[in-house]
Amino acid sequence: MKKGVIAGIEMGGTKTVVAVGQADGTVLEEFRYPTTDGEETFKTAIEWLRERGEPRAIGVAAFGPVSVNKARPDYGQMLKTPKPGWAGFSIVGALKEAFPNVKVEIETDVNAAVLAEANGLADVAYITIGTGIGGGVMADGKLLHGAVHSEFGHWFPRKAAGDDFGGVCPFHGDCLEGLASGPAMTKRWGKEPKELLADPQAWEFETYYLAQACMTLLASVNPSRVVIGGGVSQAEGFHAMVEEKLRTMAKGYFAALEENTPFVVPPLHAQQAGIRGALMLLA
Amino acid sequence: MKKGVIAGIEMGGTKTVVAVGQADGTVLEEFRYPTTDGEETFKTAIEWLRERGEPRAIGVAAFGPVSVNKARPDYGQMLKTPKPGWAGFSIVGALKEAFPNVKVEIETDVNAAVLAEANGLADVAYITIGTGIGGGVMADGKLLHGAVHSEFGHWFPRKAAGDDFGGVCPFHGDCLEGLASGPAMTKRWGKEPKELLADPQAWEFETYYLAQACMTLLASVNPSRVVIGGGVSQAEGFHAMVEEKLRTMAKGYFAALEENTPFVVPPLHAQQAGIRGALMLLA
């Protein structure tokens, strides 16, 4: 591996990306493959990296729940999860065993994405809407963890008038993820989000819930921009609809919203945000 | 003023506290007086401090909206507010004019309170329920600002079954503050909160909204403890009721909640949290 070239790994629920690149987020070469269990998924990444020479540093963007708070004794490990072969798996341990001298930085996938999408701002939130709903936050120029990490899909938005859907979250039913994730849309309307593009009612509900999500972020972490990515956010006009509903409900109250237009934006790097952010952890 | 003795000012909506003390939060002497406009309120504080000798440092805990983010050009000033005689008032400017060599640190009142209440934890949130509802956050050992600061009273909780109250927030009607502040309770039930202690329905609603607030904090800033203070939180068993409802709705999902019992607690320092926190800003 050339001097200055580093590695990134983005673990997704269904696919993993391993790459070599630079700490500014540039991907020089990447390999995408299906995510299986912890052992096998990392064996594949490690072999691919070995063929390119020993990396001096690896940034990891991991799906949750994962311990990314350095103050925790289980730092670098996957936490309790129903996903087979992941609970307790040590990501940092596996990488250090393969490459004893490597520096490893690990973050949630959504925090890595917010790093890639911050674009010079110090206070930004990122929401991704796909199989689940997750959120990452940069506040005061630093990625936010809290005790474990944000779980932005799991709070209760107010239901839209006329919405009696019970939701799909196995824990909470009609929390944000239960009402507005990709599987929620598919179950509610009997069609996948991409087949619903011409259905205004579907997007009325969807953008209403995401507008509430933005207002909840303003009330709590107070970003100056919210980036919304993920498959469900790709309908035409999606971000403008969320922003319009947000401004209607916020009633001019939040200085951070009043001072920033547009406030709700699509990602700059689309599907590359996670792997770019993984590399940028090493900057 | 003796060596090592510093000053703190806590600006409240109705009363202001000025004190001399120590950076560990110890108050040696304090003076409480009614808050009027910016000029007059600070003139009183400055005169009281002058009689005790020139302070070398002053910590200020300010009601919002106030610019506490050092990256903003209006740092240290009050932002746009309907409160007469405060919009644009420069707190840091007034103190520096009176005491040219003084070091000034300024925070929101709720962030100062979270500093006083953190008790060794790195990830803590503080909610106060009084005339309004505000929140402060310490995450990863640092007070969180975001672009301006949190406004935790102003998001939309799900309404309780049977609650058709329209709320009292002049901006948002039935946002959290509109539904659960002191004035909201008084308007809803026709009695002040302290006269409602024997009314279980009033506390069912109130603790349901605060339990949602805790869940929303877990989803966003993920604290390992939530401190709830302010007049309305002083009903017997209030914190235990909030925690019980929170655990019922969270369904074991949040590691930060599962790992910490009790999770919802009263303040250690009651009405002294703000002024103690103001002094602790100088540590």
Automatic annotation (TrEMBL), chains A, B:
<dbReference type="InterPro" id="IPR051804">
    <property type="entry name" value="Carb_Metab_Reg_Kinase/Isom"/>
</dbReference>
<keyword id="KW-0862">Zinc</keyword>
<dbReference type="InterPro" id="IPR043129">
    <property type="entry name" value="ATPase_NBD"/>
</dbReference>
<protein>
    <recommendedName>
        <fullName>fructokinase</fullName>
        <ecNumber>2.7.1.4</ecNumber>
    </recommendedName>
</protein>
<dbReference type="InterPro" id="IPR000600">
    <property type="entry name" value="ROK"/>
</dbReference>
<keyword id="KW-0460">Magnesium</keyword>
<keyword id="KW-0479">Metal-binding</keyword>
<dbReference type="Pfam" id="PF00480">
    <property type="entry name" value="ROK"/>
</dbReference>
